[in-house]
TrEMBL record:
Active site, UniProt feature: 168
Protein origin, superkingdom: Bacteria
UniProt key word Transferase: yes
Designated name of the protein: Cytosine-specific methyltransferase
UniProt-listed InterPro entries: C5-MTase, C5_DNA_meth_AS, C5_MeTfrase, SAM-dependent_MTases_sf
Pfam families, alphabetized: DNA_methylase (PF00145)
Gene Ontology MF, one: methyltransferase activity
Provenance organism: Flavivirga algicola
Length: 421
């Protein structure tokens, strides 16, 4: 039969390498979401797209044979048992709750909530490189642009927690109230729209620390007003948590916003206390000698020194920073300064021959950038989390990600409250 002849590796190759890079194509995302949700009652939201994908692959792979609805459905069922057996971070066998992952990035929220036995039933992320990393580690291709109705229409019903690390944007507040309509044109509006339609039991939002004072506090005030008054959620005062308090040596402050649907009767919530774990930079550094490509050139080092000297002469503290092994890293962020403010001393280099084009020679002071794996560790990602993109993209992805341990500690408190109901 056709289902017994299908080349599973060929399907995976076409699924990942060809389809996943197209942010406008929801069919491969539907396919992977169907495979991961065929047992939990939400597969109906993805079956049409999944069948379309399988039919497309069968017609391309076996052009001389007639592809029918029957053998398409048979093949789909065959693929459920054969595909994605080697996913590094599979969903729990017996999940205790369901959640969705918006603005998913590379899956920091998902990793944290799966660690608590949660099942992700929908994911969206527009960046094609982040999609590659996400698919490699979780076996799913995220849906694309969450502002599009086509994407929102794939969101299933009856999930428990909505997670979103949405970007910070200013609102054009038309009136004094700052309500739902005033957030139109921003990505928070799309989050609020989903909350309004799907009514999850709990919401868990993350943003930069600056949200608290953004637009003189109007942005956060509007968000809270929408959640509390327009959407009828109990939302305690948001709290700023620091990643360094939850087991990773990174000074990374982010604001967390938690909410519960008011009909659940939850009227108190306490954010997690800092753990007693004492970690320093040395705990996350590479165990072995790293490539010479991570070491700065003499010209680059001198440029950084001159740059800092100019700022110091003006009374500014801005410039590069070398983190001591017993210290705490600065926040890893996108852009060059995220790396330049997190340099390290490492005198283990034995081969000083450059492998990339540099100006000058490799410095002999042992000054290097952190590696993408070290950034992953600073964000709480385990070492078997696969990095499948270029260093440039990896730095961007981990810089944009959430700190997994802080997310997990907060999510645990959320689930504790939900389990009481």
């Amino acid at each position: 039969m056709l289902k017994e002849r299908i080349d599973i590796e060929n399907v995976e190759e076409q699924l990942f390498e060809i389809k996943s890079v197209d942010p406008e194509n929801s069919i491969p995302a539907s396919f992977t979401h169907y495979l991961h949700n065929h047992r939990n009652g939400v597969s109906q939201f993805y079956k049409k797209g999944a069948l379309s994908f399988v039919k497309e692959i069968l017609e391309k792979t076996y052009p001389s044979e007639k592809v029918t609805k029957k053998n398409t459905e048979e093949t789909l069922q065959h693929l459920i048992s054969d595909l994605n057996k080697s996913v590094p971070f599979p969903a729990p066998e017996k999940p205790k709750f369901k959640f969705i992952d918006l603005f998913a990035g590379i899956g920091g929220f998902r990793l944290a909530l799966q660690n608590l036995d949660g099942k992700c039933v929908f994911t969206s992320e527009w960046d094609k490189y982040s999609k590659q990393t996400y698919r490699t580690n979780f076996g799913e291709i995220p849906f694309g642009d969450i502002t599009k109705n086509e994407t929102k229409n794939h969101i299933p019903d009856n999930f428990d927690v909505l997670c979103a690390g949405f970007p910070c944007q200013a609102f054009s507040i038309a009136g004094r109230r700052g309500g739902f309509e005033d957030t139109r044109g921003t990505l928070f509006f799309d989050v609020a729209e989903i909350i309004k339609k799907k009514q999850p039991k709990a919401i868990f939002l993350e943003n930069v620390k600056g949200l608290r004072n953004h637009d003189k506090g109007k942005t956060l005030a509007t968000i809270l007003n929408v959640l509390r008054e327009d959407l009828n959620y109990y939302v305690p005062e948001p709290q700023i948590l620091n990643a360094k308090d939850f087991g990773v040596p990174q000074n990374r402050e982010r604001i967390f916003i938690v909410g519960f649907r008011k009909d659940l009767g939850i009227n108190n919530f306490k954010y997690p206390e800092p753990t007693k774990t004492d970690v320093v930079l040395e705990d996350i550094l590479e165990e072995n000698e790293v490539s010479v490509k991570y070491y700065l050139s003499t010209t680059y080092v001198q440029t950084l020194k001159n740059h800092r000297a100019r700022h110091e002469s003006k009374g500014n503290g801005f410039g590069y920073e070398i983190i001591p092994n017993n210290g705490t890293a600065n926040a890893v962020v996108c852009g060059g300064m995220g790396r330049e403010r997190n340099l390290v001393f490492d005198d283990r280099l034995t081969n000083f021959n450059p492998v990339t084009k540099i100006s000058g020679k490799v410095n002999r002071e042992g000054i290097r950038k952190m590696t993408p794996r070290e950034w992953a560790r600073l964000q709480g990602f385990p070492d078997h989390f696969k990095i499948v993109v270029s260093d440039t993209q990896a730095y961007k992805q981990f810089g944009n990600s959430v700190a997994v341990p802080a997310i997990q500690a907060t999510a645990e408190k959320i689930i504790e409250k939900l389990n009481c109901k």
